[in-house]
From TrEMBL:
Keywords: Signal. Gene3D superfamilies: 2.40.160.20. The lineage of its organism: Bacteria, Pseudomonadati, Pseudomonadota, Gammaproteobacteria, Lysobacterales. SUPFAM superfamilies: OMPA-like. Residues 9-211 form the Outer membrane protein beta-barrel domain. The keyword Signal applies. Signal peptide: none annotated. Pfam families: OMP_b-brl (PF13505). This is Outer membrane protein beta-barrel domain-containing protein. The keyword Calcium does not apply. It comes from the Bacteria.
Length: 211
């Protein structure tokens, strides 16, 4: 998905480079993002796995100088769900063997709020920075199937954590940008029975519309 979105962004940029107007930085904006979330978790069960992510952010920027604008943003980010499955054998007290399957899912949803800055490097190109608080809700679901019976265990960690990101954008018109972004969501606090800390790195593409 990332390759397709990037190729589309490059094609649009090249086709519109001759008509791209000077990007306007001040005013209200809405940003839509599609990305890939890579999980960095204490537990090896989900560590290193990735999932599709998407979100929307809205805010307002004030022009501080000709190239620099400062703003506030709020939004929602779905960091996707990673899965794991273990197939093995259990030994009963009488020594007999029993097949067992353990399926596990972990997913995070975050509400975001914080400041953002935008620096216009040229009439068309810009850099953005983000730093704020993410109200994150991470849920773990484990299901054990053995001997024709199933048991499920659910656990949820709700926490306020930090997020920080950078991005580069290209103005296809004076109020529409295509961008590539990297955002890190830091773990804060523990809440699982296995004491997992959840960090997430998100890489993706975005469309920002300014009003």
């Amino acid at each position: 998905m990332k390759r397709t979105v990037f190729a589309t962004a490059v094609a649009l940029s090249l086709s519109l480079v001759s008509v791209a107007a000077t990007a306007s930085s001040s005013g209200a904006f809405v940003r839509f993002e599609g990305a890939r979330a890579n999980y960095d978790i204490d537990s090896a069960q989900h560590d290193g796995k990735s999932a599709r992510a998407f979100g929307v952010t809205a805010g307002y920027r004030w022009q501080l100088s000709k190239p620099l604008a400062f703003g506030i943003e709020a939004g929602y980010m779905n960091l996707g769900t990673v899965k794991d499955q273990f197939d093995g054998v259990l030994y009963k007290d009488n020594g007999s063997r029993q097949a067992v399957t353990i399926r596990s899912e972990l997913g995070t949803r975050s509400f975001l709020f914080g400041p953002t800055v935008r620096w216009n490097m040229s009439p068309a190109w810009s850099l953005t920075g983000r730093l704020g608080i993410a109200h994150a809700r991470t849920r773990v679901v484990d299901r054990i199937d053995a001997g024709g019976t199933s048991r499920s265990h659910r656990n949820t960690l709700v926490r306020n954590t930090a997020y920080a990101g950078v991005g580069v954008g290209y103005a296809v018109t004076s109020n529409i940008d295509l961008g590539l972004n990297v955002t890190h969501y830091s773990a804060s606090g523990r809440g699982y029975s296995v004491n997992e800390d959840v960090n997430t790195n998100v890489v993706g593409a975005s469309v920002e519309v300014r009003f």
